[in-house]
Structure formats: structure tokens, C-alpha cells
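Write out the 3D structure for:
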Amino acid sequence: MPRFYCSLPLAPGLPLDLPDAVAHHVHVLRLQPGAMLTLFNGEGGEYAAELLSVDKKRARALLGAHVAREAELPFALTLAQALPEASKMDWIIEKAVELGVTSIAPLAAQRCVVRLSGERAAKRLAHWQGVIVAASEQSGRNRLAQLAPVESFGSFIATPGAQRRILLSPRAGTSLAAWAQTQQPHALTIMIGPEGGFTAQEEEEAVAAGALALSMGPRVLRTETAGMAATATLAALWGQAQPAA
């Protein structure tokens, strides 16, 4: 059954004109009146819906019962990703959402080749928000991962966070997996460097600000691999456990 994000108030029995983006997808999929859809608005759960009508630019549906289904990890996880080259960030965000990341914070680190600011940054953020929506629709998540504005590494480190911060470094003596096995599930921020990694100065600043440096084992992972491996590791070790109070 096709799933669509619908950024509107939803309620059982409500006839609804679908947003333009959803109506476009309905046309692309060649869905006909009577087809069943699943709609969610990011506030939790989902709704079965029947397509009532379709014309050239619009589509209308009737909402059915609310289903309180969630597919979230039992702990909040933020991916603080230093900006990689080219379109790698699209792939990183897509896979992070599929794996259950709660928030994504793009970072401008010293070794980042890509530099974003002003209108260019706003356009990339809008594009990445679309990637989050599409990945949520595909993966069965009913809540959207939050996307933070692009922030410099120094500013990010200097701002106190509610979550414990883990900086992944091949120079760290303890692995994320070994550390996680001794911990109860709790909210975390995983910090991933760009191509070439964080500089030694950045790592020192992060640790001085309270971050814990951990590795992903004996192999050096690419920037687009490290965050996914870390998220999958935590999901495997903590995914079925109850979060700490």
C-alpha cells in the first residue's frame, strides 16, 4: 500500500484534498479512485485512506481509522555529519532515516570541501528535507527526523547539548560496540568527520567539551559509511531494550 507524508491535520472520517506533492505521486503511480493509501503527518501513527477522486492536478481521499503504529528506535539518536563531497549527503540522510536516526545536524568542519551558506544552504536544506520525507515514506516511519541548519564545528561543540556526544575517530582506543555493550540505551549524538576525518585539533576541542572519542574498530571507514555502521551497531545492541529512565 503506498505511503505518503501529508503535512495537514488528520482525523478519522475526514475527506481530504491531498497536498500537491502527494497528488503528483498519485498520478505518477496511476492510482485510481478506490485505491487504498496510508497517510501520516509526522505526529505519530498513520491512517488508512481511500482515494475518492483523481483529476489532472488534484486528488482527494477519505481518511479511515488511526493506527498507533511506530517504527522508532527506543532511544533518540542524532547524526552530526560533517559535509561530504558531491551528493553523498543525500545518500547519508536517506540511509540514516531508514536506520532510525532521530535528528540530523550538518556540520562545517575544517576538512570539508563543500561550503554552504546563505541561499545555497537554504536550498540544500529544503532538498534534504525532501529526502527525509521520501525515506520516511519508504521505510515505514511515521515521524520525521529533525533537520538542523548547517553549523560550524566550533559552534556546535561550544553549544551545550542535552545528548551525550560520541566522536568517532580511528585513533580512539575503545570501539563504539565495546562501549555500548556496557551501557543502557540513552540519547546520543554521533559525530562523523568529512573525507580525511576531523583534525586532531577538532578532536581535542570536542573531548575538552565533553565528547567521548570512540572508534568503529580496526578498519578506517569512509565518511558515508561510518555513520551508517555506528547507527546499525547501536540499533542492534540497543534496539530491543527499554530506554533508561
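The chain is about 30% helix and 25% strand.
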